[in-house]
Amino acid sequence: xGALQSAPAQPEYRDLADKTGFSxxxxxxxxxxxxxxxxxxxxxxxxxxxxxxxxxxxxxxAQIIEAFFDRRNYRQNNEGKVEEISxxxxxxxMSHFRPPSxxxxxxxRESIRKEKLRFLFNMHDTDNDGTITLxxxxxxxxxxxxxxxxLGKETAKSIADAAMLEVASISMGHMExxxxxxxxxxxxxLKLLKGFEIESKMNIRFLNMDxxxxxx
Amino acid sequence: MAVHLRPALRSLGCWCVLLLLFVSVxxxxxxxxxxxxxxxxxxxPEDSHHQTNSTHHKKAxxxxxxxxxxxxxxxEISLWILLALLMKLGFHIIPRVSHVVPESCLLIVVGLxxxxxxxxxxxxxxxxxxxxxxxxxxxxxxxxxxxGYFLPMRPFTENLGTILVFAVVGTLWNAFFIGLTMYGVCxxxxxxxxxxxxxxxxxxxxxxxxxxxxxxLAVFEEIHINxxxxxxxxxxxxxxxxxxxxxxxxxxEFSHKGTVTVADAFLGVVSFFVVSLGGILIGAIYxxxxxxxxxxxxxxxxxxxxxxxxxxYMAYLSAEVFHLSGIMSLIACxxxxxxYVEANISHKSYTTIKYFLKMWSSVSETLIFIFLxxxxxxxxxxxxxxxxxxxxxVCFVSRVLGVVSLxxxxxxxxxxxxxxxxxxxxxxxGLRGAIAFSLGFLLPDNEMKQLFLTAIITVIxxxxxxxxxxxxxxxxxxxxxxxxxxxxxxxxxIHTQFLDHLLTGIEDICGHYGHHHWKDKLNRFNKAYVKKxxxxxxxxxxxxxxxxYNKMEMKQAxxxxxxxxxxxxxxxxxPVSMQNIQPKEPLKRRAIPSISKSREQExxxxxxxxxxxxRQRLRSYSRHDLMVxxxxxxxxxxxxxxxxxxxxxRMSHYLTVPANRQETPxxxxxxxxxxxxxxxxxxxESPKGRRAQTNPRPPDEVHLLSESSTRTNQxxxxxxxxxxxxxxxxxxxxxxxxxxxxES
Lengths: 216, 744
Description:
heterodimer, A: mainly alpha, Recoverin, domain 1, 2 domains, two-stranded antiparallel sheet, 10 helices, globular, B: globular
């Protein structure tokens, strides 16, 4: 774990560990990274994130960064955005990516899946109204294809339209011609990605050893 | 169904028996001296002239002569293949049996029968069909190429670590455990096998320890378990070839030399790396050359599939030249070549490649199992109860122990752990097959060889019959997750891509370079450099999401065209169309001076009245239309109308129709003709009169891929929309007048 300069006392770690489920070593590593990113300030801001060079070639970096500053992801049922985050909030957001442990009951697995899907949903639903409208979905696809130039823009629209059609037909079944499908609600989103097995896919490995080196 | 099957069954049965007899007769006469033309068992020649003295000058011109030797070899080969295929057909006519017993077992039984018949005819006939050279050079490569070319890359790379551990460490463990145990058993006085030395036992162990890809494929294909387990067992069976090759050569060399030093053991380890990495390197090189070649084949599409096959086969042979792992080379070639070749070749070539590979691998697999049965009969079998039974038991035990202990270690490193159920299936699915048998055949001829072969055959039979038959009910019993039916959902593809980028981003934020980071780097490298070289034209810059989308559209379009041209209509649902999700429309609608509903009905009636008269003429504009005889208008009109109504309903919803075809290849952009516009005028099914302005919307999807500017329809001002609609309605053939009382 190494000696951290201003390591918070163990009770704080214990608190965080209970809240997020990380181990003490993992929290230590992440704390070190937090300090590295924030240049030893107590809070992180958006420009700190933008300064990460590896993130520069990621097509959806804006949305990823926004997700950290979105109060809906702090598990406190708040809404809105913040301008800067503390280590605790950083950790809570990261904890969405923890893998489920091996011996879990089906309900626990289900709740973890819901949580991860909720995170994704929040990332898509930028205006916070509880539905992903066609516009917002189009924006998602455009960002994904943002590196393909003009070719990408036109097809992005069609792809988003097709995707929306699919959601609508899966969730609503038959629709009268003059009915209007408002947008993807969270229940529809769950139904849509039911077979996706997100609890096995949306995980990254949090190491117990300190390997934060090259990426500044 | 059974009633009219019986005559078919009977005739098939007759043909099969005839074929069996013919095959056995032909093979029995195989090694007769080619000088004499018949053995008395061949069918009597039509003309006895060939028996007469050739110096007889006044010989009449032979109208019909018999010369079998000329075509003996190809004739026999064809007969065998025909037999194999007829057997395959036959099994499906008897559904009950083929549901319980996997095909591989049935084929082995057939092989036993044929071998028995041949033996009955001629005691000395060499029935050794599973000649090692024949097997390794001709029978095995198609199966491996098929497996490697269509290997699902995503689960394979995600589980590569696990697969490698099972393949390498697991096989090593198996080999040594079996070898040492058998040596120990042989030392026991009672067994009377004291002559067996350690190295022979280890050699035997290394042969019998490897999980066989052919057997695994044959059995697992029928039980449809989930992707993870399938790729684990299958990947292991493919990658353990390197270990088997190294161990086999190692122990063969050592048993010649007699003594083993530490240096030799060290060299053995080094040779393992050389064999596996060398094989992969050769395969990758041939793969890249193949991809590069496919870049220039745009003018000779017909030979494209041949390039794929030949380059892969050359990769296999080249690796075999240097005693490297041919299987790994073949797989590396297929894997490397595939993404680039698929972007370059035509749709038809892709289909050809797919079906040829499936065909060859299917024939090979069938032949392998039949020959396995035949060769069993051919061998003298020195039977030693202890040795054979202990071998079988020890194989099973070592497999279970190996899998359990390795999983314990692997689970510490895996994100998604393997459960006990998974471990059981992995252990139980470790089938042995023909590779072990052929390797055994290559053993040096000593007194132990026959005993080893017997033991190997017994293990193979045990795993294929017992484990193969019981794995399906066990899978049901344990409620193992089955393969989920993938519908090619565009949403899932979007989210897969999204998740990839998201996880890469999070890894970067966390500051550690994990799996996603490197994958992302590889993809970017691929896109920036490799694709430019290996893919022609603008396809090289096409992102994956777009190619997926194009594929799906092609699929939908083809399904539409095919079902449209057939007269029957699958009744599919999905009545959601673009107008249901477009948000802007309500605003536009209000800007129009609204016409009262009754007025609208009037307009419609008038239009329809006019259109009716022009209907006959207009019908010819549509491609989907049948040319209807005006005399049978009444009957066919209703049918036609219904047909068209269905067509247009499907057209406007076509993106939501689930595709139930196999995956179709990526294609260049296809421009749909504007004839398709015909069916988007849609007003008559709904009892509520639908607003006519919604018409321009559906053409959007149709013209997706073409750059035509019907998109401008969308931007048409509200005032123009009425005109547009009228214009459209003039060029459309009307679906037909509905009775007035149908409308509300």
